[in-house]
Specification:
mainly beta
Length: 178
């Protein structure tokens, strides 16, 4: 059986999701998804990146699904759309703490920056020499993150198809072979 493991050894994600916004009240809605084998959900704190207060608010974890030993935890977010702020969320587990940052557009700003991606990396049919020549596995994501920094941050990313390349899974799992 195909047995994936999280890159950091603790959880899959975080997967940040934009849900909606209420322009009348200036509220941005989203969520964070973490998938882990921990019995207790990781702790997630969130604050404006420029705010250095020692006690940032903690998000509430909701267990939304369990598969075998894995539990899917969703953390709902509602943030004010004031000045087009960068927000930082910190995920704490028994092993350590990792911080991530994202941008929320200002309520009256209409110059939103977004990026659209199709595909996630190279298909299995691309030869390793060609992959290396073009920057190797993960090059698209490294390039996207550099552009994110260069422009001051994207407000949203839209993924169009083939976001999870699972070619190997279709070849190696007998139950999925056609």
């Amino acid at each position: 059986m195909y047995n994936p493991a999280p890159v950091n050894g603790e959880y899959f994600g975080p997967y940040l999701r934009y849900t909606n916004m209420n322009l009348e009240h200036g509220i941005w809605y989203g969520s964070i998804l973490l998938v882990t084998e921990y019995m207790q959900p990781p702790t997630v704190h969130i604050h404006r990146s420029r705010d250095l207060s020692p006690n940032p608010p903690q998000l509430k974890a909701s267990a939304i699904y369990t598969h075998r030993t894995w539990t899917f935890f969703r953390y709902d977010i509602d943030l004010p759309m004031e000045d087009g702020d960068m927000w930082t969320y910190a995920i704490s587990t028994p092993v350590g703490c990792t911080r991530y940052e994202f941008l929320v557009a200002a309520r009256d700003d209409r110059n939103w920056r977004f990026i659209s991606t199709s595909c996630n990396d190279f298909s299995m049919s691309v030869r390793s020499e060609e992959r290396s020549r073009l920057g190797g596995h993960g090059f698209m994501w490294k390039d996207l993150m550099q552009k994110h920094l260069d422009c001051g941050g994207f407000h949203a990313q839209i993924g169009n198809g083939d976001q999870v390349y699972a070619d190997r899974m279709w070849r190696e799992l007998p139950s999925l072979k056609v």
